[in-house]
Amino acid sequence: MYFSSLLAILALSTTISAIPHPLLPRAANDTHKFLTNKTRPYSVDGANLPDIPFDIGESYSGLIPIGDKAGGQELFFWFVPSENEAADDEIVIWLNGGPGCSSLMGFLQENGPISWQSGQLAPIRNVYSWTNLTNVIWVEQPAGTAFSSAHGDGDNQDELGVAQQFLGFWKNFIDTFDMKGRKISITGESYAGNYVPYIAEAMLNTTGKNASDYYNVTGILIYDPILGDRTLGDNAPVIEFVNANKNLFPFEEDVFEQLNEYADQCGFTDLMEQTNTFPPKGPIKVPEILQLNATSTTLSSFGNDSCYLQYFVQAYISQLNPCFNIYYVGQPCQYPSDIIGDPYHTNAPGSPAGYFTRPDVQKAIHAPTAKNGSAFEWDICSPRTQVFAGGIDRSPPSANNGGPLGKVIERTNNVIVGHGTLDMVLMVNGSLMALQNLTWNGAQGFSKPLENDMVVPYYPQGVVAQSGNGTLGKWTEDRGLIFCTVELSGHEVPGYQPGVALRHLEKLLGRIDSLDDDAGFSTQDTYFAGGFDYVPLTEDQIDHQLVRRAQMLP
């Protein structure tokens, strides 16, 4: 039985190596669909990006104003059109979080045409690039973020201001690239759990005879998002998270007992029981012992200091694992170097300078220059004080009842929330708790637990596999909202499991009917469309694979 299973694995491996890559490539000599006199100043030479050894094709980047007056705030973007014919009437917006973190992180390490991951010596084509499916734009926002701080800090008081700022930019972008009437999907991760719903609602609420030319929102997709009260979401699920991942938190038994006792005393055990009841029995009740004081997304606190359990857990585990990464708890020592300047990796010996800090890169993508003409001081994440006045976002959480998330679900019936199971900065059950307390389309929370398989099609990836395939999570769906866990993923799902993210995008865009569909990606050729049907290998091929693997063993 074991040997037959081994042969099946070897057969799959050889098949994967032998079949040409099935994803739609970008042609190096493609015709530029969006090149006009208006867009020419933004055109990027995709064949000559510094240190990128391949042509990414047509793309555009630079600063576009958020209003009509010259000299005001501008937002930096990078737009990559798709060659997929199904994308002709649509566009996807991607926003990283922070607040104040650059969406160029998403471009270079998550869902853009280039994949240059932490610890990776050189960039490669991202075979899971969202541009294989559709037109995608990455935007550094709000004003005050990275290159979008060229005209000073942002002065937003809340997400309503952020949304109006973005809508001004978006209208100018649409006019510049002549893209009126496109179906718009807004996507993002982390703090974009606030950005995306607020921006989507602002677009949907815009009225007038030309509103649909600019703001035709059809759905949203957000990963590991801030949805509810941050303090509660950070701490209530953490002991349950530790108990579920004991192999990564090898505490002494007395430490486990103490942490679980704290969870009981703070009412977190009961909160998690309420969260995992389907359907919910009523509004989720916050224990009085917490003395929770919540007035906005960033202004909340416990009156009981002993209930900040995320801090206690991080302090304990950091003694056992000095390389502990709260964004991906499966990361071992040592930190890999990082080309983007990720703060969890930049202290690694020999780490290169951040890619977007380089003058040659900044020139290639039409980035702003400093006032003295030198290279712009780009940072992966700008301080909160550059984004919000006083560093405080005064908005209610997006998943509050009556807030923007519920309204966007009801207006589009096309919302997906995905969450990496190895993320401890924002945990699965923190997001689920917020959604279980939310009422939309006439009912509260989900009626069924997460029982459906999240299936990523098997297909050839060549020598360097970039994502897992097969069943990589569970999901549930109710009344226009999907909630999906993603196994083996940390905070940035499109970076850790890009195959899952591409599948989510296919669902959002209507390319597939269900996330448990094991048929091939819509960008695959017919050879692998059957998902699990492989060409059998000859005995000679099997023998060759066995010999190769034996030679690789120590």
Question: Any overview of this molecule?
Answer:
It is a single chain. By secondary structure, the protein is α/β, with parallel strands linked by helices. It has two domains: 2-229 and 395-528, 3-Layer(aba) Sandwich (Rossmann fold), CATH 3.40.50; 231-377, no CATH class. Helix content is 29%, strand content 14%. The protein contains 16 helices and 16 strands. It has helices at 2-18, 104-109, 159-177, 192-205, 211-214, 230-235, 238-244, 253-265, 268-275, 309-320, 359-364, 404-412, 428-436, 493-496, 498-509, 539-552, and strands at 60-65, 74-80, 90-95, 114-115, 124-125, 136-140, 183-189, 217-223, 293-294, 300-301, 415-420, 439-440, 443-444, 452-456, 470-478, 481-486. The protein has a ten-stranded mixed sheet, sandwiched between helices. A two-stranded antiparallel sheet has the order 4-5. Strands 9-10 form a two-stranded antiparallel ribbon. Strand 1 and strand 2 form a beta hairpin. The protein is globular and about 65 Å long. The protein starts with a helix and ends with a helix. Residues 1-28, 526-538 and 548-554 have low confidence and may be disordered.
Measured by DSSP, the beta-strand proportion falls in 5-15%
Oligomer: single chain
Give the biggest beta sheet.
10 strands, mixed
- State the helix count: 16
Low-confidence stretches: 1-28, 526-538, 548-554
Shape: globular
- In whole angstroms, how far apart are the ends? 25 Å
| Share of helix, binned | 25-40%
CATH superfamily of the largest domain: Alpha/Beta hydrolase fold, catalytic domain
CATH class of the largest domain: Alpha Beta
SSE class: alpha/beta
> What CATH architecture of the largest domain do you see?
3-Layer(aba) Sandwich
Radius of gyration: 24 Å
What count of structural domains? 2
Looking across the biggest beta sheet, what order are the strands in?
1-2-6-3-7-8-11-16-15-14
Family: Belongs to the peptidase S10 family.
Keywords: Carboxypeptidase, Glycoprotein, Hydrolase, Protease, Signal
Organism: Exophiala oligosperma
Signal peptide: 1-18
